[in-house]
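Dear Dr. K.,

Following up on our conversation at the group meeting, I've run the structure prediction for aldehyde dehydrogenase (NAD(+)) from Saccharothrix lopnurensis. I'm pasting the input sequence below exactly as I used it, so you can double-check it against your construct before we proceed with anything downstream. Let me know if the numbering doesn't match what you have in your notebook.
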Amino acid sequence: MTAISATEEVRARVETALKRCGVDPAAFAGDGVTARTPVTGAPLFDLRAHGPAEVDRAVDAAHEAFLTWRTTPAPVRGALVKRFGALLSEHRQDLAALVTAEAGKIGSEALGEVQEMIDVCDFAVGLSRQLYGRTMPSERPGHRLMETWHPLGVVGVISAFNFPVAVWAWNAAVALVCGDTVVWKPSELTPLTALACAALLDRAAAESDAPPHLNQVLLGGAETGARLVDSPLVPLVSATGSTRMGREVGPRVAARFGRSLLELGGNNAAVIAPSADLDLAVDAAVFAAAGTAGQRCTTLRRLIVHQDVVDDVTDRLSAAFRVLPVGDPFRDGTLVGPLVHGAAHAAMRAAVERAVAQGGSVLAGGERELADLAPDAHYVRPALVRMPAQTEVVREETFAPVLYVLSYRDFAEAVELHNGVPHGLSSGIFTRDHGEAERFLAADGADCGIVNVNIGTSGAEIGGAFGGEKDTGGGRESGSDAWRAYMRRATNTVNFSGRVALAQGVDFSG
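The predicted structure tokens came back this morning:
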């Protein structure tokens, strides 16, 4: 890669995309939040952070909207989400440009993230006619026992920089068809994408005759998020980010008896068995480890390879890592864009140095690139590190493209290495042995929320519930029955017998 977009070029792309989505950045000008681009490392706009009183007003407005929205028929709520999905399709390129400018994703990944928004809208529209409860047999004659599901209230969404639009959409589309309203605190690193999405949703609401204030955006840092987390009018907080953040959010919400949906970090691993298709396994591992410059919660961070094939696998991976096109994510042909900021680069350097100190050897990558063209940006070549054991640094999540390779002798050892970390988000095994695959999927196999066979750890379809166990937080977003987190359950008994009949045969007649 021989060129990096100038900051003026990036700013012009951003201004055009924002204007097309209905956002004037001048209307949000002020102090507290600086929108930057990792493409050059330079600031784009200074935006006004929301203070405590503004957070409270946004929550109050969302709560007032909820009082109307909760009684709107669910299929009508689905019609709003359908219109929103159509607007997302219309502005797919605009939103992708904003994702690339603020998060540094290459073009295909940015477009893929926007497509996830469109897909989850499709899912939610169908869901709006399928918010099913159950009818259960009653032990009392002349009684009907059933459960119903009702809207919960205001849903607070705190999202991270690496998926600046998709994760919010996973929450917002489902919450809206469930009858909830949303207050969104995006990452302070990606405020512009949030403003664009909010403008499109507001437009969809107006065109659908829906009440205003169904979705509110709060710009700011940790203080803004804390105010949202502590609000008694927010019964559910869905927070995506680091485990450290989740340890702060979870107890605060629990202290007021609210609900939290936590999707936190991941130290994801894949096992390569001796029977694996190595071409398939290596291709999948390269994308899973280097995609989004290693800044996905589902990024492949540990590769556990059978001792019979580990040398072949590391040779193939080393060759691939050395030639990965690293550079400007706006340029065609780039596969690895920049890290989000200097702190991420510093964390990567420190992790590699610790790995070497703990007996590891760097087989490929790890060096900074393009510093002469973009001195304030942080482009790095993904690092491949062979480790003699699962040491302390390997057990930690480093949010950067560092792939540790470990070897194993038998299946039990592979599972033990795989599960021997605090996180439990995504996992995979590459094998042609059907029995081995089934053992990996079994209760005493991989301990993650996402367990794959012959596919990498990154990437998810919206039809399946997304989330993980242990230090990943236990939350589930998007598909399957994840909608239940956004609603409250009521158990109903209807007595049509004409007499009082107590459960368990209790006689209270005296």
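Two things stood out to me. The longest strand covers residues 143-151. The radius of gyration is 24 Å.

Best regards,
J.T.
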